[in-house]
Amino acid sequence: MIKRVWLLPWIGLFVSLPANAAWEVNITPGATAIAREVYDLHMIIFWICVAIGVVVFGVMLWSIIHHRKSRGAEARNFHENTAVEILWTLIPFVILIAMAIPATATLIKMYDSTDADIDIQVTGYQWKWRYQYLGQDIDFFSSLSTPREQINNEAAKGENYLLEVDNPLVLPVGKKVRFLFTAADVIHSWWVPDLAVKKDAIPGFINESWAIPEEPGIYRGQCTELCGRDHGFMPIVVEVKPQAEFDQWLADTRSAAQAQAAAATEEWTLEQLMERGEQVYNTSCAACHQASGQGIPGAFPALAGSPMVTTDIDAHINIVLHGKAGTAMQAFGAQLNAVDLAAVITYERNAWGNDTGDSVNPQRITELQQ
Amino acid sequence: MDTTLSPTVDTTEHGHGPAKGLGRWFFTTNHKDIGTLYLWFSLLMFLTGGCMALMIRAELFQPGLQLVQPEFFNQMTTMHGLIMVFGAVMPAFVGLANWMIPIMVGAPDMALPRMNNWSFWILPFAFSLMLSTLFMEGGGPNFGWTFYAPLSTTYAPPSVTFFIFAIHMMGFSSIMGAINIIATILNMRAPGMTMMKLPLFVWTWLITAFLLIAVMPVLAGVVTMMLMDIHFGTSFFNAAGGGDPVLFQHVFWFFGHPEVYIMILPAFGIVSEIIPTFARKKLFGYASMVYATSSIALLSFLVWAHHMFTVGLPLAGELFFMYATMLIAVPTGVKVFNWVATMFHGSMTFETPMLFALAFVVLFTIGGFSGLMLAIAPADFQYHDTYFVVAHFHYVLVPGAIFSIMAGAYYWLPKWTGHMLNERLGKAHFWLSFIGVNVTFFPMHFLGLAGMPRRIPDYALQFADFNAVASVGAFIFGLSQLLFVYNIISCIRSGERATDQVWEGAHGLEWTLPSPAPYHTFSQPPVIK
Ligand code: HEM
Ligand SMILES: [Cu+2]
Questions:
Q1: Residues B359-369: pLDDT tens digits?
Q2: I need a labelling partner for B196 at 20 to 30 A (CA). Which of A348, B235, B359, B457 fits?
Q3: Which spans of this chain does the record mark as coiled coil (chain B) (predicted)?
């Protein structure tokens, strides 16, 4: 982040204060040409407003000081003046046209998402983002990585508290990236201020936007549409890399996915599954069902002691894979790989005193997924 | 406007006063009683919604979750918004309308007194129902006062059905109130009170009432569609069933945008009464005020989608809504210029109502500036759903709607009670509120610009300092309202006797009546020349 040496207070006065990022007061000039244009537009309107404010409040203050009864001011008797009234209808009108021209130009550019080098589909889930690089065989989820202890004030907060994720979105520098937004459950909105991209992700619809990041770096943002309980906990991290590093990342990510697929053909022991299952549970399930498996009465059912979890194993696998229509229970079949699914189901069947002793093998899940 | 008054206070012929006991309040059809009921109700709701705001601000004082869990936090933001909008601001304006409109137009009562009783008494039931959802399994509404589908349909707590029912009741109440106000203004004016002689408060309410009748059915429609989706298997807003979540937003904001003008037009009327009184000078540009108010009302039907710039509208739609929204700045500007011109070369004094009115003009204008910034679509992409928006709408709602209501209350209380207010206490209330409001909401502009989204229970560390400042301001503002309550109660019980005219520069029919205004007034219509 750029540290500011000058603060820009709203009232339009420059006041110098020591550099302090925590007292950040303005939008970011950003990391793309469009973002800078938006920033300039924002500053133009801001200063026009300041100028109008100075005039209006100036006249008002003048009247308050000089035309007060205690100073012996006598009220004059004018109470309309057609010429003046028409004039101060027209002048604002002209100012508005002056503002609308650059705004229109920028907007038209922002809408031109043709000729993209890469297409990435971004899908909002309660409460994580899924990134699919279209035609690149890359598909992963990105969720908050700040530990719950920090949120609950049981541990010191890290520098990027609430603005860090397990798998950031990685982009190459200088390429036109087209984003296709959609959602799996409720409406979310994907916002990265430095890219000047904010677009709603709406179930059943696809929205477009684009950016050409100019500098390598890490850019952070958040979901900006109230999307339920953990709306405040679905950050976005974008890592912009030079082309060579980006290509390397593509290759690494693909081979990691292959390794995952291979792992699904191995035999896993109950202990291995439990250990992995607990991690998966805490990132994917605990937000609703709680780490204790107790759920939240009325909102999210308990898993501890639930017949759904302790009896019919097929029904259990089915609901985890396919979700439950009309509720917040998502279809995790598409979100998690076979190993993670097998592990988390095994974990749920044995944690919190459920102790069924069942273990689910990844192959079984793979078969069901086909 | 010249008003002469034939003796109208008839204490012999229709001399019966109010009924005794509680029945007076339950069964009353007297516009003054009903006005009083509305005002007390809205004060109660203002304090309730205020406590919720303080709960939100207390949680946001520091990063981390310390007092409440996210699901409860969401219920608090939602309820706070709903209660302030439907429980505090709207009923307060209706209360002022009930009290003042018949008096200002020289009518003996509202046109439809029995319906008037109904439209008030529905409200306590609606709000009890809504508040009771907080104690239901799954909790109360937690999807924001805008209750976007599908979060509020497919993913809502079971109590959403009660929420829908409560909204229906509030809608009925508002429509009945609006019909009553229109009928009163159009049919019950005293002889000689032509439309262009109506006090501005009456004018702004007439326009507001038409807005209400136009849009409350739209709100009823959208919640009914929700009800169908939830219980009767339709898919208006469910994409999986062929529906469209964006349809919800179009319908909601077709109600919602005029709704925000419903919360500000009567405020324009109130300050247009107060500023001339304390500037001892006629309102500048009466006619252009009327035209400006009407243009704002008409434009408000054409701009709903500026709340939806990020929803993926086509470019042409985006441009249309951007231009239409910017246009609203023109009539709004005319109003502000007229108020300033009224003060210019006046002979001003600064009693409490005037202080609130002046603060209204300044702070509402600041809210208007941020509104203009939000109208610029490409820039709105950076502001939308951040604390910049929270700052914007609180500048127009708290020092806008609420300050004007307080100004009106301080202005007319002597007429209602027959006692003057305690000026020193009123001024203390004003200054604490003024400082509190700015300390609370000004830093929210910075928070939003720096990137803090709204409706989040916890935030990144870089937002910590301004959040702490805002929370301190909120407690200053919140606690200082207790002075207001105390001042009202002591004004009812005691205080210097008020003269009929109350304020030196006051003009209009209401000031020709004795203070306190008798229970029955204008049973003989006054003649206005
Ligand atoms: C003591 C005064 C007040 C304080 C401290 C306060 C504070 C807040 C806060 C912190 C939020 C949550 C913002 C967010 O997370 O999005 C909020 C939301 C809101 N407030 Fe206030 N507020 C106050 C008075 C009012 C008044 C008087 C009104 C209306 C006339 C009002 C209307 C709203 C609305 C409509 C929302 C949006 C709720 C939602 O997001 O669904 N507030 N307020
Ligand atoms: Cu979200």
A1: 999 999 999 99
A2: B359
A3: none
